[in-house]
C-alpha cells in the first residue's frame, strides 16, 4: 500500500502527459521538491532573495 501511494504521488507530481525524465533529471527535481516541502529551499539557493521580504509593503 505504501509503495503504491509513493508511486502514485511521484507520477502525479513528476510525470505529466508525454513527459519523460532521465534518472539524473528526476533526482534533481526530487531534491528541489523535497527542499521546498521541508521549507529548506533557501539553503540550496542562499543568494536568491525571499520575494515576501523583497516586495514587503513595510520595506
TrEMBL record:
Name of the protein: Uncharacterized protein
Species of the source: Halomicronema hongdechloris C2206
